[in-house]
Hints:
The chain is α/β, with parallel strands linked by helices. Helix content is about 40%, strand content about 25%. Strands 6-7-8-3-9-10 form a six-stranded mixed beta sheet, sandwiched between helices. Strands 2-1-4-5 form a four-stranded antiparallel beta sheet, with helices on one face. Strands 11-12 form a two-stranded antiparallel ribbon.
Amino acid sequence: MTTLTVRNLSVSFPATGQTRLAALQDVSFTIAAGEMVAILGPSGCGKTTLLNVLAGFLRPTSGEALLNGHPISGPGAERGVVFQQGALFEWMSVKANVTFGPRMKGMPRAERDALARRLLGLVGLSDVSDRAVHSLSGGMQQRVALARCLANDPALILMDEPLGALDALTREKMQELVLKLWHEAARTVVLITHSVEEAMLLGERLFIMAPRPGRILQDYRLPFARAAQTEGIRAVKQTQAFQRQRDEILSLIWDMEEAIMGSDTEAEPQGDGTRAGKSGTGKAA
Ligand SMILES: Nc1ncnc2c1ncn2[C@@H]1O[C@H](COP(=O)(O)OP(=O)(O)OP(=O)(O)O)[C@@H](O)[C@H]1O
């Protein structure tokens, strides 16, 4: 199983004039094999930048990301990415989408068919195997995207708001599915979400990020994802422990958002290219 190590990772982008924007600054963490980590934080705190580095789409300005001790220097088949919108081949059938990667790698047809049957069964789409993807609902398309990701047998699964475009009811069902897949596939998962409840339900670890510079403010270890696997999401959400934790995280993020709004007019460029402001101070720091 896969261990992910990030050491002193910084990513900056050219900003106005001579300044640079510190999208990520000196971020370090280790994610153990089989852990599911949710990442939550206000807009612009560097969540997608971090995921892009882990996917190998973006090279860090300094520092490194290592997968089982090997530096990540580009995209790789051992990492699967699921986006908010499935990035599927809409004209192909569900089955053809799911088996696209294995077909490219030369997997024989019978083996591919068996793989598609197993994965489509896992995500509850056995009966639409031959349908064109464009004829499916948004929730079904995201299930195809999950199955397609799993078909490539990635050791590390990276998800950027995979359920963000779904209605509330479908989203809850999909959260159950992600928990089931995580349990059955036993993969290391990093998931970005804008929903506090989703982050708490799916992340046995939860990174709260802050912007300017982008960094990890809190690293929570939470019991809810494990509990939800046995007791179900609805039951866990109703517990006092869940509600107390949610209120704490909500007020942390609320304070951060307030600070960001205030700092928008006050922030000045610094010599190191970051911007001074109130974000990340006070309770959130
Ligand atoms: N290619 C780029 N060029 C310049 N600036 C960038 C680039 N990509 C990201 N940024 C900036 O880096 C910061 C972090 O962006 P990022 O997209 O990682 O944030 P995020 O937390 O994912 O935001 P959101 O929740 O809105 O998706 C933002 O200020 C963004 O404007």
